[in-house]
Amino acid sequence: MTLTQLRYAITVANARSLNEAARTLFISQPSLSTAIRELEEEIGVELFRRTNRGILVNPEGEEFLGYARQVVEQYELMEAKYVSKEQPRKRFSVSMQHYTFAVNAFVEMVKQFGMDEYEFAVYETRTYDIIEDVKNFKSEIGILYVNDFNRKVLTKLFHQSNLEFHELLQCGVYVYMWKGHPLAGRKEIALEELEDYPCLSFDQGSNNSFYFAEEVLSTYEYKRLIKASDRATFLNLMVGLNGYTLCCGLICEKLNGSDYCAVRLKSDERMTIGYLVRKGAAISPLGQRYLDEIKKYDNMVID
Fold this sequence. Notes:
The chain is an alpha/beta fold. Helix content is 40%, strand content 23%. The chain contains 10 helices and 13 strands. A 5-stranded mixed sheet has the order 4-3-5-13-6, sandwiched between helices. The termini are far apart. Keywords: DNA-binding, Transcription, Transcription regulation.
């Protein structure tokens, strides 16, 4: 197994086409096919599957490519520092459920380190994709929640993906809505009182299981339910349709403005928000600073 073979495999995975990958690498398609086949024979894993839609990565291949990307990236950092004598840019990326406080923590971390020497990435995405991003080295850290309902299923998936979950915050459940909502002035709201208003839920794509829902009480039979894929749409639906969603109650006015509020839901449900990392992996200084910023919100949790 060579570094060249790893680069070939990564390029094929990105291009989803042997012909396109060969053009990118400036080699012939037969030579690329031979190199990939020899790599697969050596490691005993079939990385790719040919379909009418092009080249797809097999599940075993996804894990291998995660390690391959890490090896190639580390080599490029060493090459830049010791061969090209360049000062490499350190990298940090995080994948998260749609939490404004987690985005704001990222903003504060970037401000502290600056962007001259560092390269940052943040992904607000679906629950399953967060797990995959950390598993495959796309992100160093993943931010999501567990509760009594999804804990067993997600913990099993974390274990299968060689990931560890660490608690950051514990909180009750809140109804997130705009301040013009008819129920916005209440101290507490019962779920039954929300029946005439649309519940907003983040779409989880092909992994749309109740266990992957970002909102607690996902099995409740909502009279009106609207699925959306991004936070900006949620805010628009809250104002336009008096929609609401269920959340941890942590509001970041700096990012979303002061037009929204969180009202305690009459429920004994609890949420544990935490972070995912690869098992046994050391957290980078950037990652640790990010987690420190999130932990500051622990003092703002109101139950």
